[in-house]
Amino acid sequence: LAVDQLRFVRPKFVENVTEPTIKRLLDGLLQKKVVNDDEKDSVNVIAERADKARAIIDMVLKKGINACLILKTLLCEFDPFFFSDLCLS
Fold first, then answer.
1. Could you say which residues form the signal peptide (predicted)?
2. Contact, 46 vs 55, CB < 8 A?
């Protein structure tokens, strides 16, 4: 399941996701209505890249399987090499 996969790769995601990918993921999650403007803004005010990554993945995990599937799809689209490195396919 997507939820279990994301939980499993969370440490590696937090450690290795880049700032540009974080920005694109947030925009994509907003566009797909997984997050709202307030949630996006709450992540953007976080200074540390790793803390932003933690906030995004934890927020999506709380929203359930559809949100997790959307995050996986966006990550595959925006950073296919990182996606395959995470073994999420």
1. none
2. yes
Q: Read off the amino acid at residue 84.
A: S
Q: Would you say 35 and 26 are in contact if contact means Cβ atoms under 8 Å apart?
A: yes
The token duo for 55 is: 């906030």
Given pLDDT bands bounded at 50, 70 and 90, which one contains residue 63? very high
pTM of the predicted structure, to 2 decimals: 0.94
The stretch 23-43 carries a mean pLDDT of 98
Gap between the terminal Cα atoms of the chain: 11
- Domains and their CATH numbers in the chain: 2-86 (1.10.533.10)
Q: How many CB atoms lie within 10 A of CB 6?
A: 23
Distance in angstroms (rounded) separating the CA atoms of residues 72 and 88: 7
Residue 2 has pLDDT above 90, yes or no: no
Integer Cα distance of 20 and 1 in angstroms: 27
